Inverse folding.
């Protein structure tokens, strides 16, 4: 089954398979299936053409996949352009919603990098300082 330009897995139940779409979660699935009058325990491959069309019709009111992704990107871009606090946090690759960063935030900040004293020979190899000439 193809919905919003995206192939949904055939072997899954329809209530699980619809969550593979970006922007559709479990709570949205229940309202979509209720509006389309389709049972959630059915497998995708067992759906009739009529049921597939009703599901697609019920999903017309939702922003999914490309439209939603582009909207989210444009929202973040707007925050960066107006130099809001959240925009600056996005620019610096830090959490934007008030989480602490002293001990956690590893997924946002990346792998730990130890910063410490560098020996003189290593600094010369890295090109941080010039080698001193003996007189």
């Amino acid at each position: 089954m193809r919905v919003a330009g995206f192939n949904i897995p055939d072997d899954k139940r329809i209530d699980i398979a619809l969550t593979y779409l970006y922007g559709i979660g479990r709570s949205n699935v229940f309202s979509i299936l209720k509006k389309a009058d389709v049972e959630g325990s059915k497998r995708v491959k067992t759906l009739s053409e009529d049921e597939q069309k009703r599901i697609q019709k019920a999903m017309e009111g939702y922003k999914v996949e490309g439209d939603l992704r582009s909207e989210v990107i444009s929202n973040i871009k707007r925050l960066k352009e107006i130099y809001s606090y959240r925009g600056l946090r996005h620019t610096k690759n830090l959490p934007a919603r008030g989480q602490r960063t002293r001990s956690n935030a590893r997924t946002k900040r990346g792998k730990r990098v130890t910063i410490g004293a560098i020996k003189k020979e290593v600094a010369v190899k890295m090109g941080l300082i010039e080698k001193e000439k003996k007189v």
Notes: The beta strands are 2-3, 6-7. The mean pLDDT is 86.
